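User: My advisor, Dr. K., asked me to get a structural model of this assembly before our group meeting. I'm new to this, so sorry if the format is off. These are the inputs:
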Amino acid sequence: MSAHVLEEQETPVLWLHNVSADLAGRRVLDDVTFAVQPGEFTALIGTNGAGKTTLLRVILGLQPTSSGIVELAGERRGRRSVGYVPQKVLLDPDMPLRARDVVALGMDGHRLGIPLSPRAGRLRRDRVEAALASVDAIDFADARVGTLSGGEQQRVLIAHALIGEPELLLLDEPLANLDLRSQHEVVALLARVAEERRVAVVMSAHDMNPLLPVMHRIVYLAGGRAVSGTTDEVVRSEVLSALYGHHVDVLRVHGRILVVAGGEDEPVRPDGEEPGSVESGIVSVP
Amino acid sequence: MNALFAPGFFTNGIVHSALIVGAVVAVVAAIVGTFTVLRAQSFAGHALGEVGATGGSAAILAGTNPLWGFIGIAVVAAAAIELLGVRQPRSRDLATGLVLGAGLGLAALFLYLGATSQSTTGASITVLFGSLFVVSMQMVPSIVALSIVALAIVLVCYRWLLLTSLNPDLAAARGVSLRLVSALYLLALAIAVSLSAETIGAVLSTALLVGPPAAALRLTKRPTAALVVAAGIGVLATWLGILLAYDSYTWPPSGRGWPVSFFIVVFVFCFYLLAQLHGRKLTRG
Ligand SMILES: Nc1ncnc2c1ncn2[C@@H]1O[C@H](COP(=O)(O)OP(=O)(O)OP(=O)(O)O)[C@@H](O)[C@H]1O
Ligand SMILES: [Mg+2]
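Assistant: The format is fine. Below is the predicted structure of the whole assembly, which you can bring to the meeting.
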């Protein structure tokens, strides 16, 4: 699975050291430490309220920390080359922006003035076209972005994040609201991006299973605390029991991983999903 | 010809300056107003208009042009909204409501004093309903200068405004200061509202501000096109309004003419309805 070399000593793209953050007087992130290498695919897994969004906002500098260090490519608070896809973006159907305009804003949305020069315009159009193609969004490139489906908007936003050629791509639950097929497409797309462009991808999710085939590293969050490592290192009964502070079992069924808490007769997945709804066997790890 | 253009329409100096000033103000209102709609800040625009009326009527009492009082108070009110408000739209509306409440009391007082004082009778009507036909030629350079300031703010911050209206987090993640965008935008809004109030009055200024952009957003899916179409609709509504208002001097009941702002707002509303009908057809692709 991880033919990718984790022990290779490069400067990490992202490094968090003992990071804590408080929201409204409550500790939401507690002493979080992990590093992400170039080209690595990292899954940020946790239940509702575990602190995934807060952690991503801390990395972006949108949320102040109470203590600890966040370094991007060895620099404190350099966020020039970070792409971001926020959670639950609902684009207004009245927005006079086509999918391609949104992607172009990913390239120069922070600049001043109106883009008018025709030569720069042609270069711009080509780059936008390429970015749209890389997420298979050419078909709806000229549609008003707010009228697209959730999955289509998601792909446009990924192109928006990628067009600036970031070294680090942060995605907050990009698989929520997607059907199984679109989930697979988006995961495959992100894995390809990580592999081909050496972009480090950090993506949050409730469920690690759709990501198992592609992820190199997991950061497992519970109650603001985190453990990180390879899936085999982290997703184990002892490790997760210590993180949750009570006993949890890790079950591997047909290549799927279920984390279950409580007694044997009443397995409850920490994300609150009914155990009956788990379609084990449909998704499998090669 | 005379049925459409009343005699003297093209030779009357007052009409000339009304056409020019009306067009300039309509363009500013449409371009600033497009982002008022996209940022969901119509309430702030409306509040600045009402509060600005305080300044307008105070300026009349003090014997100067109402525009200066209007713009002064509108900018102060914009700053107050910005300082009180936080990023969430709801608290922003709350801050706007508070500023509006505080301003209206004073507006009522000044308008009352203005209406009862002999020398300024009719001035309150001007502040509330504006009049393109009494804009003096001396004011034209100031109106043009203010227009340039408001347009420059929007055009310089154009992509910031688009990105923040699309999603504030996306903008912030690219290093755009939401606070700065919001403050600059409110300044442009205060200017646009004051200029609209000068021509069509405080009460109706919001219509000129958000009407043409709301129509334009039904008709186009490109941001630059939306700005151009909105400006076109604003100018057209203003000119048609002036035309009918000039005609109306021969109309019943009094032969003193109907207010030009009335006609402009009616046309803006008609354009919006037409765009709404047409926009149904414009979906994807
Ligand atoms: N603005 C805020 N003020 C106070 N508390 C907050 C705020 N935002 C989040 N929190 C709290 O911080 C904790 C972590 O929230 P966060 O949004 O990071 O969780 P999450 O893992 O992203 O959850 P989800 O899966 O639902 O998106 C939650 O307990 C939440 O209640
Ligand atoms: Mg979240």
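One thing worth pointing out at the meeting: The pocket of magnesium ion (ligand 2) is lined by residues A 52-53, 87, 172 (CB under 6 Å).

User: Perfect, thanks a lot.
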